[in-house]
Amino acid sequence: MTPDKSMNVLIVDDYKTMLRIIRNLLKQIEYNNVDEATDGAEALARLRSGNYGLVISDWNMQPMTGLQLLQEVRADARLKSVPFIMITAESKAENVVAAKQAGVSNYIVKPFNAETLRDKIERVMSHA
Hints:
The chain is α/β, with parallel strands linked by helices. Helices cover 45% and strands 17% of the residues.
């Protein structure tokens, strides 16, 4: 199943440069409906008021981490089935396990390119 490239994607990172990088990578693979949030609380507010087909969130954020955001999303009846990709700088086994237990759809280790992003999105959407 090919993902719907017109779906709304929410990218979450407290680092503006990273948001720009992810937005550019998404544009390269033809996802143009991209919203940004710079922290977990803002992301939750956007998710609750919008209609998103995918969340791509950084792990290391303050004050709410990507893992906490994921837990909030999975605990929300209306949001719990939204595909969620976590971006992390370290692929520590315990992080991966924690994210899996919290219900992450997939994760990406930095640095990554448009190809990796496309593969992960396609993998996640084929199971959605």
